[in-house]
């Protein structure tokens, strides 16, 4: 496993939405944690948006996270004891009001398990782990935000010419993301322009698919992967691909919900050709077109 500076250690912020269950999000998404502050009403906002807070010059919406994921909403009496987790995700600053903050802890992302079927259809949970003999559920913040702030239709459907479409159509494309909402967005973008693709839900499966395809003489041309994934994350996947003679044919596009120049810089350090903050369909498609151009030029040289 990579032990370089690019493999930035990401901890877990543990917090409570109910008295009994502990939840978590990765610390790279968290900008700040502040005590509850007075909120200003936002007319015609989503039912889970409690209002807007102004913090350090930024005005941001504050969401009752418990209500947003299906738990009892916060009462007015509880508010004074609550905390706001300020996140930078999906290109927007958002505050999540939670019942309590437990702590920030180190995390071995490779030991996060898929959510058990006993959780039912709680689609907001992407993984579970044990911290001090207590089960912690990892929340899918991207999915939560997509319910509160749905993507505009034009952000999901790319626009390209017939010539550009035919450039992409012959390429073998692999999409990798552990988030169901992100996979749906990626799929819709390519489905809308009739571009075929393959999907993996985690980095380990993606690496296996890449290796099998290369062994069969049909290697993948373009790899589009999320950065933040339990198990083998996007940085590690890119590193493995670039350091394998049989896999490094692939043009690597990493994407992240973190609006951070640091994430982009790290992506380039591990060998990714591009890094995007997700999700804007036209940006993704044009990154793929740049990949197609590079692949074509390498084939011409050889």
What does the model show?
The structure is a single chain. The protein is an alpha/beta fold. The N terminus is likely disordered. It has a 5-stranded mixed β-sheet, with no helix packed on it. A 5-stranded mixed β-sheet has the order 3-6-7-5-4. The two termini are 32 Å apart. It contains 9 helices and 15 strands. It has 2 domains: 137 residues, OB fold (Dihydrolipoamide Acetyltransferase, E2P) (Beta Barrel), CATH 2.40.50.180; 149 residues, 3-Layer(aba) Sandwich (Rossmann fold), CATH 3.40.50. α6 packs parallel to α7. The longest helix has 21 residues. One of its GO terms (biological process) is chemotaxis.
CATH class of the largest domain: Alpha Beta
Poorly predicted ranges = 1-8
Order of helices and strands: EEEEEHEEEEEHHHEHEHEHEHEH
CATH H-tier superfamily of the largest domain: Response regulator
**Side-by-side strand order of the widest sheet:** 8-1-2-10-9
Total domains: 2
Question: What would you say the CATH architecture of the largest domain is?
Answer: 3-Layer(aba) Sandwich
Beta-strand content bin: 25-35%
Q: Oligomer, anyone?
A: single chain
Major beta-sheet overview = 5 strands, mixed
* SS summary, helix count: 9
Pfam families: CheW, Response_reg
Protein name: Chemotaxis protein CheV
InterPro entries: Chemotax_regulator_CheV, CheW-like_dom_sf, CheW-lke_dom, CheY-like_superfamily, Sig_transdc_resp-reg_receiver
Keywords: Phosphoprotein
